[in-house]
Design goal:
Blueprint lengths: L1 H22 L1 H30 L5
Helix pairs in contact: 1-2
Amino acid sequence: MAVNSKKIAIYALVVFALYVIITDPAKAADYVQIAFEGISNAAGAIGNFMTWIADGAGN
């Protein structure tokens, strides 16, 4: 049952993404930019954390 729910959720997400891309490409581009900025910020934060750990965690 969980597999079917997951497939349905992924299908709905793909349909929604295609709908947004077709109806408003500029807004879709904004969403992609926001997503990549979020991923970039998260990667930077993880890098900063790992550097902090490697430096002795503030000791």
